[in-house]
Design the sequence.
């Protein structure tokens, strides 16, 4: 058997960071998965050894799935204030978790929703004009990266979003003149600088804590005010640089502002997002522009979408008793756990342990390699979408939903199967 | 299992049966010829009831990204209309942009059993199908939006010929598991991405230099040659602009004899007469529809109240975003494919424009003579939520009621409509046509919209009553595939619906071309764009609507 060649699987879609790359390649041999073409993060999360993954446990004791599901259902039935955290699952898994919430009552929040809610503060209150990845790729002639270089979290962002024009006609559709990329905030990292070599890259360093101010000034310049109008607050190099960026955006045919709200400083994140959207709104009166917010790790955008179509509210909503109540302040995981008597944590994409919780039982529908600070009352190891089973995940733009492919059968239940088993056990009891 | 619906007045115009007292017998989910010698396992007493096939809505935005954006903006509406508590509650709600579960429940509660999402953007098709899979009690299908997609515009502009366009259209229909082609503002959505703010029928769009007329006729020919049953479903140029009746009439003139469906024509029937430069073009449009048997329309009736407008026509939505109510809106350019714009809006009977829009819709309903070519829609949620259908049916069937409503409108608007003089009242037969028989026929759904043997066992019993709004709000009984799902207007069971798709043939060379297009332009693999059969309706796969090339 050991002489058998591994199966090479190409053009895989990836559900980890939210960028939705779909040209990954792995070698699969029985339960073993070895990445061949993947960014470092995807490689780490795709890799699987040949061993048998963990089995379900109740109170630390290995049990069959049905028994673990029964134990979970019993805990859920006894609970009066359950919090569902993590929500790292494919769409089918999220639908299963939504069913559990309807049946037993629970608040729901995703592990990576902090950035999403910083964006929703603007999107829900006033709205914005956004674009998707292919529009950015083919149309954007001026890209302003607000805040930190996103490469650390989305390592292929620039490669995918702003490929350089090419002479053979296979490059961006509408950019014969190339494009300008402005880093407003922290400058590009070395790898980014290399990748973008040959493109017009500008840097406008903005000290931490002044980003919202800088965007206010940029907005003022875009709206036609001058340095003199601003009363000297932005006199100097930064003001001049911002005025130049404003000029670039106004002259652009399709300017795009991008940011990762999760990595903005919490004190100014809301303002940064609001002002970026404002700038785009001003630009659209005379030319075209859009925002492109980064985010969406572990199908966070999928969780957002499923919540909206099932309950009519975003995440951070309490469901149960025939009702749903949206209160971000109360039902963000950290807040919800202060009043919860049960935690159900789901993390199928990565071995992230549940948040600390000691007010009641913990049910973990988690990656089999999860290391727990304390043994959960119920642990159901679940397969990873795109490794152990197929599934669907949303890309960060919230529009494109990608199919993931199962690579191996290691006997792990999917989140959808685990949730269905719990639901069935709850009905049978 | 034989189910007998006994003694009702059957309105089945597709079968030529109008107001005939007879039994409808369903065996294993399908209507069969009545054989009184065979026992029935279940008998539903339909005496005193009007019996019709399940309702079919061919234009209602119920699923996909723009609907979710609408939900995001409409959480106050969501909170104001929670789903009723009970055994069949899904903890959802909303009226203007209801949740999926509630959408299926509310439609079936009115006797509808099939609803079509008329604007599936290819890039968002998987999402739309995932939502549809979560809608119980009704069958669904999607119309794929083409006509602003760069792949198509490039094909046409490069002079690739009709054959290549046909192959592309067939490839896209299969890839997205849709059942018809919709065009939204042909070329206009693309033009807006290049900062074009308007595009008339014979104006050349930016970059590709194509006129909307050229895009329209090319796609009309494609759909006809592929044999897709429903003709091009067109949201034309210049939506909402005073004077757009001229464009709409010119569009009818551009069809060259090819069948065409003009959608939400109310929004495309505006003149510029009068001191407010906004007037009804309904009479002109109705005359054109009456004179052109290859044209069908749905109305997109406005009903007063809060709603949200959601459209792929970002050019038009950008133009209107200033009148958003409440003041917020979302726009999005989508994936070299299309766009969307979501603008909350409240129609007010004291507003001149809104009142006239209301009247124009009704004028169209009453002036277009052939009910087989006009379908009952509010373009949910753009003209009004679909839950206003019973009210709309009463407006059509009851002239006194209509005139009483008219009397409450903005005075100047009343002076600008001849609605009061229109005496026509829709009959039950005509209601059965515009809400069942006609949409089924145009969509190629041979086993729907009628009650002849072979028809699917979707049967609705309405207790006959003078108040048509009450009558159509709460049917006594709704059967889906012969199974009782609604009784006295209340949901009593949830069943899984189907999703319809067409599978036209294409030259396999198009697979290679599309692989290259997606690799080079979109930055996504074509194989991931394509939706597998198993992704439809929780693994059940689509129900195929036959093409007749």
Sequence:
């Amino acid at each position: 058997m050991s002489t058998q060649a591994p199966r090479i699987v190409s053009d895989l879609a990836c559900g980890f960071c939210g960028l939705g790359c779909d040209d990954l390649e792995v070698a699969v041999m029985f339960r073993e998965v070895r990445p061949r073409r993947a960014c470092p993060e995807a490689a780490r999360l795709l890799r699987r050894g040949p061993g048998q993954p963990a089995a379900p446990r109740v109170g630390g004791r290995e049990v069959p799935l049905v028994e673990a599901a029964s134990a979970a259902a019993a805990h859920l039935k006894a609970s009066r204030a359950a919090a569902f955290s993590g929500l790292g699952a494919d769409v089918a898994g999220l639908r299963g978790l939504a069913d559990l919430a309807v049946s037993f009552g629970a608040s729901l929040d995703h592990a990576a929703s902090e950035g999403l809610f910083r964006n929703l503060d603007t999107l829900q209150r006033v709205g914005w004009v956004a674009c998707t990845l292919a529009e950015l790729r083919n149309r954007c002639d001026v890209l302003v990266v607000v805040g930190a270089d996103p490469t650390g979290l989305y390592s292929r962002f620039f490669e995918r979003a702003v490929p350089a024009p090419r002479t053979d006609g296979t490059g961006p559709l509408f950019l014969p003149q190339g494009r300008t990329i402005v880093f407003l905030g922290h400058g590009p990292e070395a790898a980014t600088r290399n990748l973008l070599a040959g493109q017009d890259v500008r840097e406008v360093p903005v000290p931490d804590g002044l980003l919202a101010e800088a965007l206010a000034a940029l907005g003022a310049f875009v709206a036609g005010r001058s340095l003199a109008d601003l009363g000297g607050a932005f006199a100097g190099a930064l003001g001049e640089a911002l005025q130049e960026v404003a000029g670039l955006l106004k002259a652009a045919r399709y300017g795009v502002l991008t940011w990762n709200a999760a990595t903005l400083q919490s004190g100014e994140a809301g303002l940064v997002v609001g002002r970026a959207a404002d700038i785009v709104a001003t630009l659209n009166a005379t030319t075209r522009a859009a925002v492109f917010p980064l985010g969406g790790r572990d199908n966070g955008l999928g969780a957002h979408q499923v919540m909206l179509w099932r309950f009519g509210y975003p995440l951070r909503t309490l469901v149960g008793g025939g009702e749903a109540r949206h209160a971000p302040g109360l039902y963000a995981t950290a807040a919800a756990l202060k009043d919860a008597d049960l935690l159900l944590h789901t993390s199928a994409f990565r071995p992230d342990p549940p948040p600390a919780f000691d007010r009641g039982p913990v049910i973990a529908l988690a990656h089999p390699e999860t290391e727990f600070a304390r043994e959960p009352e119920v642990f159901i190891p679940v397969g990873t979408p795109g490794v152990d089973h197929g599934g669907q995940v949303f890309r960060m733009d919230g529009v494109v939903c990608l199919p993931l492919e199962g690579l191996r059968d290691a006997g792990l239940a999917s989140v959808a199967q685990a949730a269905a088993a719990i639901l069935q056990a709850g009905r049978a009891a | 299992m034989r189910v007998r619906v006994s003694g009702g007045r059957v309105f089945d115009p597709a079968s030529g049966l109008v107001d005939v007292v007879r039994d409808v017998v369903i065996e294993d989910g399908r209507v069969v010829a009545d054989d009184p010698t065979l026992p029935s396992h279940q008998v539903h007493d339909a005496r005193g009831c009007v019996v019709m096939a399940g309702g079919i809505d061919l234009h209602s935005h119920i699923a996909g990204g723009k609907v979710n954006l609408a939900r995001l903006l409409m959480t106050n509406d969501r909170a104001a209309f929670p789903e009723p508590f009970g055994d069949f509650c899904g903890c959802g709600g909303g009226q203007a942009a209801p949740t999926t579960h509630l959408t299926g429940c509310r439609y079936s509660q009115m006797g509808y059993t099939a609803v079509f999402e008329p604007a599936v953007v290819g890039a968002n098709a998987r999402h739309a199908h995932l939502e549809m899979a979560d809608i119980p009690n009704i069958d669904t299908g999607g119309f794929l939006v083409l006509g602003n997609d760069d792949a198509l515009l490039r094909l046409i502009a490069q002079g690739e010929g009709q054959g290549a366009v046909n192959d592309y259209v067939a490839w896209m229909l299969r890839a997205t598991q849709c059942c018809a082609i919709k065009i939204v503002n042909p070329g206009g959505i693309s033009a807006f991405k290049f900062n074009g703010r308007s595009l008339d029928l014979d104006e050349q769009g930016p970059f590709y230099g194509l006129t909307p007329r050229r895009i329209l006729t090319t796609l009309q020919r494609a759909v006809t040659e592929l044999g897709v049953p429903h003709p091009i479903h067109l949201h034309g140029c210049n939506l909402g602009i005073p004077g757009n009746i001229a464009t709409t009439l010119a569009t009818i003139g551009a069809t060259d004899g090819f069948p065409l469906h003009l959608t939400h024509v109310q929004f495309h029937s505006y003149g510029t007469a009068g001191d407010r430069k906004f007037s009804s073009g309904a009479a002109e449009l109705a005359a054109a529809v009456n004179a052109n048997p290859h044209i069908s329309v749905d109305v997109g009736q406005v009903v007063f109240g809060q709603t949200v407008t959601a459209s792929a026509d970002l050019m038009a939505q950008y133009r209107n975003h200033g009148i958003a109510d409440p003041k917020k809106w979302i726009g999005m350019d989508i994936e070299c494919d299309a766009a969307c714009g979501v603008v909350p809006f409240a129609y007010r009977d004291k507003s001149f424009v809104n009142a006239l829009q209301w009247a124009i819709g009704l004028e169209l309903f009453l002036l277009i003579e052939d009910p087989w070519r006009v379908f009952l829609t509010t373009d949910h949620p753009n003209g009004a939520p679909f839950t206003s259908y019973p009210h709309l049916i009463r407006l059509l069937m009851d002239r006194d009621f209509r005139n009483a409503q008219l009397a409450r409108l903005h005075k100047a608007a009343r002076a600008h409509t001849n609605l009061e003089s229109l005496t026509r009242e829709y009959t039950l037969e005509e209601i059965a046509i515009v809400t069942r028989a006609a949409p089924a026929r145009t969509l190629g759904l041979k086993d729907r919209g009628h009650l002849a043997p072979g028809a699917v066992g979707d049967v609705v019993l309405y207790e006959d009553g003078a108040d048509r709004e009450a009558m159509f709000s709460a049917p006594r009984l709704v059967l889906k595939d012969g199974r009782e799902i609604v009784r006295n207007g209340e949901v009593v069971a949830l069943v899984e619906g189907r999703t319809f798709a067409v599978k036209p043939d294409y030259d396999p060379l198009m697979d290679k071309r599309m692989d290259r297009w997606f690799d080079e332009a979109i930055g996504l693999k074509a194989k991931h764009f394509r939706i597998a059969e198993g992704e439809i309706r929780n693994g059940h796969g689509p129900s195929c609507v036959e093409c007749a090339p």
